[in-house]
What we know:
Largest sheet: 2 strands, antiparallel
Number of strands: 2
Strand content: under 5%
Order of helices and strands: HEHHHHEHHHH
Strand order of the largest sheet: 1-2
Radius of gyration: 23 Å
Number of helices: 9
Helix content: over 70%
Amino acid sequence: MPDYDYQSxxxxxxxxxxxxxxxxxxxxxxxxxxxAFGERGFGALMLFFGLMNIAIGIIPGTTTILGAPLLLMGLxxxxxxxxxxxxxxxxxxxxxxxxxRNGLDTVLPRLRKVExxxxxxxxxxxxxxxxxxxGIATFLLAFILVLPIWxxxxxxxxxxxxFGFGLMQRDGLAVLIGWCAFGLICxxxxxxxxxxxxxSPWLLPVWEWAQGLMPQAWAWFSGLFGG
Length: 227
């Protein structure tokens, strides 16, 4: 795995992303990303992996590679670790740099617009206690990301990206938006669960009755076409 040093703290985050894509190595290693964003802390890495899950998560296998580090980030935010640690085998994992460039073309224009609007504010939303809570939410959302759910990566990845952007820019408004979205997901899940609890006593007997009719229906159709 190549070793890189981008000195990323001297450039806008969007420029760092673009510079990574210009390298000639066809493989983009996870270790390269950690080196590039390490000085910016967890926020930059959360934002990056969240954006990449949105941009190229449809490619089979990428959500596992890009989602697993988010699980570790969530845990390390919870325990208040200062710097991200990843095992060596994880740092050697890679994706195609061309796929990265294609995904970057999708998210970069929007990211630059948001960067211009961002500023440090609502500091209570980026305090140490808030970071622990964000770590818990990130871990739960990342767990959803690594599951093989078709299309299930979009909303969790968006929320993680929002949290990461807020932490990186110390923008409490962005963090607040992330919490609102997370709350809506929890509310939707609760409504679905309560609806199922209310409907299932009526649906399950109907389902069992339909299953009982299936052998008779099959026999009738077989007799009809057989005759």
